[in-house]
User: Which sequence fits this backbone?
């Protein structure tokens, strides 16, 4: 319970500016993060139980894929996104404040590697100990991430214009 409360305080702190704006993508991302946290706390006692079972192998595969996506997505934003702390959008967190549309690497295939990463993280945690409640939470995570991505796409169209609309025509949202 202490872990859940402390993590929630951290998530609220990071999301504080987005939580004031229902139209911001960060508002819905907050609920995705919270639901992932609930699923994690629910399944944390099963993290290393029966390590060579089919569920654990699927889980670790999804978790590793999650790490790869977040790593490559962050690297590409850092190297090619032309970060600008002065970008005037309070809903954006630090690394999201880019001024150049990144369309190479993982972004050549998917528009939202960070949300794909969270998607794989949530489902990877589910496979540690599959239950009906866990499946429901994984579906809720998926729904919040889809809403988050769509809200962010609206923001990106507003900022990057036609270039982002054309980019959307040639890439997938998550996978």
Assistant:
């Amino acid at each position: 319970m202490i872990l859940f409360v402390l993590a929630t305080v951290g998530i609220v702190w990071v999301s504080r500016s987005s939580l004031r704006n229902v139209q911001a993508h960060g508002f819905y991302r907050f609920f995705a993060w919270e639901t992932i946290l609930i699923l994690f706390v629910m399944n944390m006692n099963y993290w290393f139980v029966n390590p060579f079972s089919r569920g654990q192998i699927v889980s670790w595969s999804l978790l590793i894929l999650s790490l790869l996506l977040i790593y490559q997505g962050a690297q590409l934003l850092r190297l090619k996104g032309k970060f600008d702390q002065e970008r005037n959008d309070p809903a954006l967190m630090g690394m999201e404040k880019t001024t150049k549309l990144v369309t190479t690497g993982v972004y050549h295939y998917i528009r939202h590697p960070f949300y794909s990463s969270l998607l794989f993280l949530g489902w990877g945690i589910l496979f540690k100990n599959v239950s009906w409640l866990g499946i429901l939470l994984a579906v809720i995570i998926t729904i919040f991430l889809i809403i988050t991505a769509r809200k962010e796409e609206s923001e990106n169209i507003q900022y990057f214009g036609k270039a982002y609309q054309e980019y959307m025509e040639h890439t997938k949202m998550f996978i």
Notes: The chain is about 65% helix and 0% strand. The mean pLDDT is 92. The longest helix spans residues 132-160.
